[in-house]
Structure formats: structure tokens, C-alpha cells
Design brief:
Helices cover 64% and strands 3% of the residues. It is mostly helical. A two-stranded antiparallel ribbon has the order 1-4. α8 (131-153) runs parallel beside α17 (370-386), α11 crosses α18 and α18 crosses α19. The mean pLDDT is 89.
Length: 437
């Protein structure tokens, strides 16, 4: 048993098998929505939705198991939200390309990521971001996923007049979500192990008699992936359009993943005294391999999910957490109706409370030093306001370099916050991204 656990980086002195398993289940439940949402989004391109459901599960299992066994980390991977929308609504439905063309772009992106990870370039890009700006990523993600949770709960809704506004607090589904938030908060305050998981289960069960939770079946056979597996459009790989699509996928995936890993790792206490993450290269490799294999299976880009923070908060610290989540994804192939009956109102409380927990890093930012505080504020604020982790990071870096250049102050009291040549190169690339893509 001990040898098996060591495969996942489990340390009996500092970790608990029970917490690792609960962490994996919690992460899975907070992101199980991808099993319903991804087939719906990708299916809009004409791809067989049943096949996409199966490829989503298998790709999540592969990517997450690489994370568990190779990186030995508690992070969970699946087809990324935002990236799947770009795949379907931009590349296929707007630009007019086939879904086979889009899958080919995803495959090329994955192969490039493997190359960038092997050469260490992805890690160097992270290290080029000033330490204080990295401290802003976790709180920014906290606000972002809290907004996602509030939106899923119906507590926050869109408004033509004010963009967002309070939802209908008399609606049964919203009231159920509010109950889940308060119930989970009480469990968290009482420091009950698995508080977020128990909150999800309790809210789901209470949703049955009030008509929010609907479960019509429990077991079903997974659909075949034959209609979409290894479906590539090789004749387009050398075109300019393919290059534009690949570069866009690269930017979105790279900085969404980077932000998620930094934010969740910070919350888990996996960051050293200089703000660096020693295992980042292996985590990036899991992401790259998952994307490459996923493309072969007919899936959009695989990325590390920010919902992994819920599993970390539940106590997950090793690859055993990721392996547990991977097992849940595998079982969902056969128990899809059961897993998919969990309503958004049940998972929303976990996302909102994890958002609260990720705000701790904001204390590392001195908001009286405006040269660093302003870019950090942009990074934090723009993640939820643009609904994009990558946009928050990109604009944070651009503003950091611009302010320091125009004030003639490239050096800070802390050398880890200096504007280096690497930071400037990143800022230039980010500006070109917005200008050309």
C-alpha cells in the first residue's frame, strides 16, 4: 500500500488518505458540469454530442492521471471552458472552418506545448513575471471563480442597464443555492473535513423535493467516440489561418493554465520563499500531453481547472487527489445520469467559498506603492470583469512594464520585482497578441 501511495507523491507524515480522496471527489463534483456543458458547446459544430461526452471523460482521465503519476500534484484537468467556446463559436461557426480543422489546431498546440515545456521556456515565462504580480493572481482567480459560482447560483444575473445585478431571491433554485452557501460556510467555519463536499451532497439532496435536482436514470453505456477520433485536416497545417488559430489557442491556454497553477499552488502552500513553484514544469507537461492526446480523441484543449482549488481546500496535496478525480471521471462514463443530476446550485457554494479562501494572497501586496499596486489591481480586477484569467495576467504584465518604463524606475526594493528583459519581452508579446489576434 505504501509503495502504491508513493507513486502519487503521498507522504504519510504530512498527508491523510481520507483528505486526499475527499479532495479528489470535491474537485470532481465542482467541475462535473463540464461533462454536460462541453458536449453542448462542441456539439454546435456538428460533432456527435455523445462521442464528445465520451472523449471529454477519457481526455480528462488521461490528463489528470499524467498529473497524478508524473507531476504528483492534486490538480485536475479537463477540456477547458473558454477554449471550447473559441473552438466552436469562433474557429468553426464564425471563421467557417471545419471541426476537423479546429482539432488539428489543438493537436499542433499540444505538440508545441510539449516542446516549450521540454526546453523550459514555459517555466521561464512564469519566472519573468514579478513576484508581487504573481501574488495578485490567486486573489484574482478567487474573485473570478466566486463570480462563476454566483452566476451559476442565480444570485448574480446579467443586466442591460448595469451589466450585472442581483438575481431573483424569491426563486426556489436561488434560495436553494443560498442555503448551500450558508450551510457550507458553517461547515467550513467549524473546520469539518470535507465541508465543501458535504455541502454539495446536502444541497443536491434537498434539491430533489423542491424540484431543482432532477435524476431520471443512474447507469448508462458510454457512446462510441468512433465518429470523431483521429479526425484531422492535414491539408491545412501550413496555412496562415491555421497559424493564427494555433497561436490564439496557445495564448489562452498558456496563461489560463499558468494563472490557475500559480493561484492554486499558492493556496496549497506549494510555493517557495521567492514565489517560485518547483514542480511547474511537470504540471505544464501534464497539460501539454493531455491536450495532445485529447485532440486525438476528438476533444478541445485540455487544461488545469481552477476548480482544483476546492479539492486543495478540502485537504488534497498529492497526486492521489488527482487520481481520485480521474477515477470519478472514468466512472462517470457509466454513471453519467447520476453525476449530471447535480445542479449548479449545489456546486456554486463550493466555488464561492473557495473564492473567499483564495483572497489571502492579497495581503502580500503593498497598495501604498502605486508602481506595483496599480498593475496588481488590474490583474485582480480584470479577471472577473473580463471573465478571463489570461486577460487579467496579460494586462497586469503590460501595465507593470509600461508604468515602470514611463516612470524610469525599472528596479524595485525587492529584486524579485524588477522589470527584467524577460518581463519586457513578455509585455511586447502580449501587446502583439491584442494587436494582431
Amino acid at each position: 500500500m505504501e509503495k502504491l501511495l508513493k507513486l502519487f507523491g503521498y507522504d504519510a507524515k504530512t498527508m491523510s488518505v481520507r483528505k486526499e480522496i475527499i479532495g479528489g471527489i470535491t474537485s470532481f463534483l465542482t467541475m462535473a458540469y463540464i461533462l454536460a456543458v462541453n458536449p453542448s458547446i462542441i456539439g454546435a459544430t456538428g460533432m456527435d454530442q455523445g462521442a464528445v461526452f465520451t472523449s471529454t471523460c477519457i481526455a480528462a482521465v488521461v490528463g489528470t492521471m499524467v498529473m497524478a503519476l508524473y507531476a504528483k500534484l492534486p490538480f485536475v484537468l479537463a477540456p477547458g471552458m473558454g477554449l471550447n467556446a473559441f473552438f466552436a463559436f469562433t474557429v468553426v461557426l464564425t471563421m467557417g472552418y471545419t471541426w476537423q480543422f479546429a482539432l488539428t489546431a489543438v493537436l499542433i498546440e499540444g505538440l508545441i506545448f510539449i516542446l516549450l515545456t521540454l526546453t523550459g521556456l514555459r517555466q521561464k515565462m512564469v519566472e519573468a513575471i514579478p513576484t508581487v504580480l504573481r501574488s495578485a493572481i490567486s486573489p484574482g482567480i478567487g474573485l473570478f471563480i466566486a463570480l462563476v459560482g454566483l452566476k451559476n447560483a442565480g444570485v448574480v444575473v446579467s443586466s442591460d442597464a448595469t451589466f450585472v445585478t442581483i438575481g431573483n431571491l424569491k426563486d426556489t433554485a436561488v434560495l436553494l443555492a443560498i442555503f448551500g452557501i450558508l450551510f457550507s460556510a458553517v461547515l467550513v467555519v467549524k473546520k469539518l473535513t470535507g465541508a465543501l463536499l458535504f455541502g454539495i451532497i446536502a444541497t443536491t439532496l434537498i434539491g430533489i423535493p423542491v424540484g431543482v435536482t432532477h435524476c431520471t436514470a443512474i447507469v448508462d453505456f458510454p457512446p462510441s467516440i468512433r465518429p470523431i477520433v483521429m479526425s484531422f485536416e492535414w491539408g491545412s497545417i501550413l496555412t496562415v489561418d491555421m497559424a493564427v488559430c494555433v497561436i490564439t489557442f496557445l495564448f489562452i491556454d498558456m496563461f489560463d493554465t499558468m494563472g490557475t497553477l500559480i493561484g492554486v499552488a499558492s493556496r496549497a502552500g506549494m510555493v517557495d520563499e521567492k514565489g517560485n513553484i518547483p514542480f511547474l514544469g511537470k504540471a505544464f507537461m501534464a497539460d501539454a500531453v493531455g491536450t495532445t492526446v485529447g485532440a486525438c480523441l476528438g476533444s478541445s484543449t485540455i487544461t488545469t481547472f481552477v476548480e482544483s482549488a476546492s479539492g486543495v481546500e478540502a485537504g488534497g496535496r498529492s497526486g492521489l487527489t488527482a487520481a481520485t478525480a480521474a477515477l470519478c471521471f472514468f466512472l462517470s462514463l457509466f454513471f453519467a445520469p447520476l453525476f449530471l443530476c447535480i445542479p449548479n446550485q449545489a456546486t456554486a457554494p463550493a466555488l464561492i467559498l473557495v473564492g473567499v479562501m483564495m483572497m489571502g494572497g492579497i495581503g502580500k501586496i503593498d497598495f501604498t506603492k502605486y508602481a506595483t499596486a496599480i498593475p496588481c489591481f488590474f490583474c485582480i480586477a480584470l479577471m472577473p470583469m473580463t471573465y478571463s484569467i489570461s486577460d487579467g495576467i496579460l494586462i497586469g504584465v503590460i501595465s507593470y512594464v509600461a508604468i515602470h518604463l514611463f516612470t524610469g524606475k525599472l528596479k524595485e526594493e525587492d529584486p524579485d520585482n524588477d522589470v527584467t528583459m524577460g518581463t519586457i519581452v513578455l509585455a511586447v508579446l502580449f501587446v502583439l497578441k491584442y494587436a494582431l489576434l
